[in-house]
């Protein structure tokens, strides 16, 4: 999502170098594991090693983020728990977000979703999770979307 101009909660896309720099400059972070699926993504990652300070700088993007940019975006924080139907909403939202930025849903992602103990289809739209969510995520809609994407 962060790489997408449309999906980024900061109102503009970040580069892989900027994301790596953000992660590596958090307190106590010593290393970052990167997931890649193409040679281009590997090259975009190793570009960090030779990137200039200006290329690493993410501060302007964060500083200019719209105030309400995180509203409606799941942060996978889990504050919506406990769930009346025991669905792990944070995990469902995470797999859904990962699926929606792919052209086709990877089999590994489908497998991860399938391994959840409870699936979005079990949602009874009670709305309790929405009351607890500090980010205004339309959770019931997200659960319906997950059913469409993952089939259950
Ligand atoms: S739906 Fe809201 S409360 Fe639940 S994990 Fe996402 S951001 Fe957190």
From TrEMBL:
PROSITE patterns: 4FE4S_FER_1, 4FE4S_FER_2. Keywords: Iron, Iron-sulfur, Metal-binding. InterPro entries: 4Fe4S_Fe-S-bd, 4Fe4S_Fe_S_CS. The keyword Cytoplasm does not apply. The keyword Metal-binding applies. Residues 112-143 form the 4Fe-4S ferredoxin-type domain. This is 4Fe-4S ferredoxin-type domain-containing protein. It comes from Acetobacterium wieringae. The lineage of its organism: Bacteria, Bacillati, Bacillota, Clostridia, Eubacteriales.
């Amino acid at each position: 999502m962060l790489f997408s101009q449309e999906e980024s909660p900061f109102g503009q896309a970040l580069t892989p170098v900027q994301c790596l720099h953000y992660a590596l400059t958090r307190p106590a972070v010593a290393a970052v594991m990167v997931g890649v699926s193409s040679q281009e993504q590997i090259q975009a990652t190793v570009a960090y090693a030779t990137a200039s300070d200006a290329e690493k700088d993410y501060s302007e993007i964060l500083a200019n983020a719209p105030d309400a940019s995180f509203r409606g975006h799941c942060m996978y924080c889990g504050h919506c728990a406990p769930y009346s139907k025991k669905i792990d909403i944070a995990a469902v939202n995470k797999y859904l977000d990962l699926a929606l930025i792919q052209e086709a849903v990877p089999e590994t992602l489908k497998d991860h979703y399938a391994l959840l103990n409870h699936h979005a289809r079990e949602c009874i739209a009670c709305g309790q999770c929405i009351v607890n969510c500090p980010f205004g995520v339309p959770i019931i809609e997200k659960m319906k979307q997950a059913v469409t994407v993952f089939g259950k």
